Amino acid sequence: MAIDFxxxxxxxxxxxxxxxxxxxxxxPIWELVPGLVGAAPFAAFARNNIVVNGSFNVVQExxxxxxxxxxxxNNAYWIDQWKFxxxxxxxxxxxxxxxxxxxxxPFGRCGQIKIYGAGNSFAGASDYVGAYQxxxxxxxxxxxxxxxxxxxxxxxxxxxxSVTGTFTVILGYSKAFLHNFTVNAANTxxxxxxxxxxxTTGAQTDWPVGAGTGAYLQFCFAAxxxxxxxxxxxxxxxxxxxxxxxxxxFASVNNAVYLTGVCLLPGSVAPTxxxxxxxxxxxxxxxxxxxxxxxxxPMLITTNYVYQPHITSMRASPSVTPITATGDTWVFGGDQHxxxxxxxxxxxxxxxxxxxxx
Amino acid sequence: MALDFPSTPTEGQIYLPSxxxxxxxxxxxPVWELVAxxxxxxxxxxxxxxxxxxxxxxDVAREYGIGTITGGRIxxxxxxxxxxxxxxxxxxxxxxxxxxxxxxVPAGTTPFGSAFPYVGAFQIIGAGNSFAGANDQVGIxxxxxxxxxxxxxFGxxxxxxxxxxxxxxxSAAGTFSVTIGSQPNGGVYRAYTHNFTVNVANTxxxxxxxxxxxPIGATDWTTDSGPGAYLYFMFAAGSAEKTQTPESWQPWNxxxxxxxxxxFATNGNVVQITGVCLLPGSVAPTxxxxxxxRRPFGEEQTLCQRHYQRYTMVIHGPSDWKxxxxxxxxxxxPTVSAVPAMSGLVVQxxxxxxxxxxxxxxxxxxxxxxxRI
Lengths: 358, 373
What we know:
The complex is a heterodimer of chains A (358) and B (373).
Chain A: E1 2-3, E2 14-15, E3 23-26, E4 29-32, H1 42-46, E5 65-67, E6 76-79, E7 82-87, E8 95-101, E9 110-116, E10 128-136, H2 137-140, E11 153-161, E12 165-172, E13 175-183, E14 190-196, E15 213-223, E16 235-237, E17 256-266, H3 273-276, H4 283-291, E18 294-301, E19 306-309, E20 319-322, E21 330-334, E22 338-343, E23 347-355
Antiparallel strand pairs in A: 2-3, 3-4, 5-8, 6-7, 7-10, 8-9, 9-17, 10-15, 11-14, 11-17, 12-13, 12-15, 13-16, 18-23, 19-22, 20-23, 21-22
Chain B: E1 2-3, E2 14-15, E3 25-28, E4 31-34, H1 41-46, E5 68-70, E6 80-82, E7 85-90, E8 98-104, E9 119-125, E10 137-145, H2 146-149, E11 162-170, E12 174-182, E13 190-198, E14 205-211, E15 227-237, E16 249-251, E17 270-280, H3 287-290, H4 297-305, E18 308-315, E19 322-325, E20 335-339, E21 345-348, E22 354-359, E23 363-370
Antiparallel strand pairs in B: 2-3, 3-4, 5-8, 6-7, 7-10, 8-9, 9-17, 10-15, 11-14, 11-17, 12-13, 12-15, 13-16, 18-23, 19-22, 20-23, 21-22
């Protein structure tokens, strides 16, 4: 959009180029009129982050801190909205410690993936370790991927790793676009951005737009040989989840990778590093978004039927299970908007998990 | 904040006049161009949260579910097609005409891509109708809660204009009226009617219009949790219902101008609408930007639940009192009903935040909490 200011303005003359913003002429310069643009509406921008819990703040299942023993938990949630993916043919004593930790991050909290026990060479051809998020179709829909008018989407995030190297980020569903990022300095927070071009040549069925999974956003930090065969920086049918440039960030024991501030915004320009920390929804808003998929609530169960509406309506009818099994007979039911149940005995001090995760 | 562009820029030079969060410009001789980004595309996306309309994408359909329902929708029957949208269908001599309405996937090729998976769909079935009755009319309306209208300062000297944008597809070309009308708080009913034209049948067209601020009259508008204003889309009307003078604020007589066409003259004719957006100010999103002007489904649903909720309940009996909080606080104390009706159900204290009940015998069904306006 060209901004071609009037050549001989009068004092107090205003000028609004198509799409705004508005300027007023105070000789000898045009001044920007304070408003949506001048006020820097970061909170409004933050609400457009397609990623949920990109700051790794909401941890309903495990709480803050780290938990160990994740080696066998492939495709398991470790933090709200974030799954851990791990395939390790020969572990050699290696295991993983995951969690939401508070370090001197630009965001206060971050997600941690740390190897302990031993490092690993990821010699198995299909070995893999990373983290990913299901993006609900409704959240992807405005991008119109698969249509001629699809728009680009820009990823930004902070990363900190024990070693330098190259890692892979994937945006995809049936098709995928892989991009390599480089950690340039060990043990240093680095800000990364990349604009995924729109997929304009696919079909609507390549990108579901309902309440199911609409896309995956995946970070890969080590991979075996057959996993590292995808071509980066091009849309293609999703086969492997890493590129030939992929490094192994977990070769040595106690190596760790930290992520935070993961933001996926419509458009082609990323927030600056300075802006990025302000592009967070409030914790309350973020938690409510997470509760569309998963809730962990305290509850007192009696032998009489108790029915309650949810804190917020869920994505789908959840599974309802007690946090701690008691040996009693539990009967639960529910849907997207409410749940109910009873037990064979009065049970207090326990809670329930309502799970409608993708 | 001064905007003082560098006097001798080089090609491709970037200028950030207001630091982080402000716009950035790139010099492409001979002009400075605004860089799309946070201030460009993404700021448009952020503005989705400013949309005064709730369920403008017709996604949320708690009463009838996704899809259209057939028939029984004339002269006051089943008027709430979807959350927040009301069907006005009055036909003195309907013959075998009826209306099928609800939401559906969009017809034809969608220039908005997948941004609006659902649209509001209204179709005449059985037979077309001439709308010969003087008071015949058919259209949809959306009541804007006063609290959502309040920032516009309608009725005050510093009132803002407001810009409507939406997508429409119709089986027939023609002219239809869109009216914003006031809910007075002791003042007078005011309305502004604008004519839109469907230029090409069976083709999605993007429409925008900026309504100027209304005349001064603070009591002409209500800004509490009751109705604040009404937005009407009209697709056919009898002679007495199309007398509103368009393109200026007028006393509110009806919702159609004399130019109003009949979009339902032929059996099977359909009108589809989606992406209804009402933004403060005078700049509409472009057609390309419009696809970003939507809140995520979950957040839209929560806004709808301020006016209408329903959820499954099992009420334990006998006489076992329970209090329950709502999913989200309602606009006002709701009417409470059960679908299907529960035997021996007694509801007490139906409030904005909670309600209580017991049943003489254990009963189950969907509880409906209605605080619509």
